[in-house]
Amino acid sequence: MKLYKLMLLSIIFTSSTAFAADQINLSASDRVYLLAQNDVRNPTDRRLDPIEQRREQDKAKKTDSSDSSSSEQGVTKAAIAVCSGEFAFCASSTCVRTGKQITVKENGGKTTKQYPEVLCTCPIITKKIAVEQNGQPLVGIAALNEGNMGGSCASPAAGKVWSYFSNAITTYPQESAGFESKPAVSQSCPASDGGGSNCWSFLCSIDPKVVKTSTGDVRTATCSCPLNDGLFGSKALKTSSYTTFAGTYSSQPSSSCKQAPVGFPNQLLQ
Predict the structure, then answer these.
(1) Beta-strand (E) ranges in the chain?
(2) How do the pLDDT tens digits run along the chain, 270 residues long?
(3) Alpha helices, DSSP H, located in the chain
(4) How far is CA 115 from CA 76, 165, 232, in A?
(5) Radius of gyration for the chain, computed over Cα atoms and rounded to the nearest angstrom
(6) Which of 64, 153, 234, 256 could serve as 45's disulfide partner, Cβ 3.0–4.6 Å?
(7) How many CB atoms lie within 10 A of CB 158?
(8) What is the pTM of this model?
(9) Rounded to 10 degrees, what is the CA torsion of 228, 233, 236, 237?
(10) C-alpha to C-alpha distance for 63 and 29, rounded to whole angstroms
């Protein structure tokens, strides 16, 4: 659980636009904080692995806490990376159960778990959205060996796109606002509403129809995602509330809590 908490916090609170820092002596918590930072001047498929560069000197100094090694192993197995190019951003989307199962990688792809499958319609983040609306480069954070990714940022086929995460892009098309671009606003959903979906690092199919809005045309993708997958294949507790950005622009925001919204279980922050 400590690994999941550290990983999630590093993703949420660290900018994916930061550049790699000069090598310095870092504590375990500092290294986790830097996971989502990378030199993105050539970011097609860059592994965020400052840990490997510093491991030997850290071992020699023996300054890290006992749980730092487990954090490092999880990070390396997951292959957290900054990927450039367009991606689906599902953080503000609700989903529909299909009645089928989806296979989710865990432990760096060494094992898998089955979860109920949901379909989510997510906006595709383009250069216009990233650069013009947010002043950020067109990059997202991915776990190359988790979800159903195959170890690379590259799309596996025409008409396909990966779903990434970015905390740097805060204004983007909101499903609850008819896909008009608006700032993301979060809400917490109770566990009794059925839980949420995890679309981070999953494959999506680009939808043929463009959505016309007052803030510009929006392309969307349909993503197949697991329901109640906490992150990295860990099952969300049935007692855990859920944080999501979905539904907050609708007339009844809380109604989206019963529509398998994309988000994360708050157990990860405990």
Answers:
(1) 46-47, 80-84, 87-88, 95-106, 111-125, 139-143, 160-162, 171-174, 180-183, 187-189, 203-206, 220-226, 229-231, 234-235, 242-244, 263-265
(2) 444 444 444 543 443 333 222 222 323 333 333 333 333 333 344 444 433 334 444 444 443 333 322 223 334 466 889 999 999 999 999 999 999 999 999 888 889 999 999 999 999 999 999 999 999 999 999 999 999 999 999 998 999 999 999 989 999 999 999 999 999 999 999 989 988 999 999 999 999 999 999 999 999 999 999 999 877 667 777 777 889 999 999 999 999 999 999 998 876 554
(3) 2-13, 28-33, 50-61, 68-78, 127
(4) 24, 21, 12
(5) 18
(6) 153
(7) 6
(8) 0.74
(9) 130
(10) 12
Residue 160 CB coordination number (10 Å): 13
CA torsion 127-131-133-139 (nearest 10°) is 70
Amino acid at 238: K
Which position has the token pair 């592994």?
A: 47
Decide if 91 contacts 11 (C-beta within 8 A): no
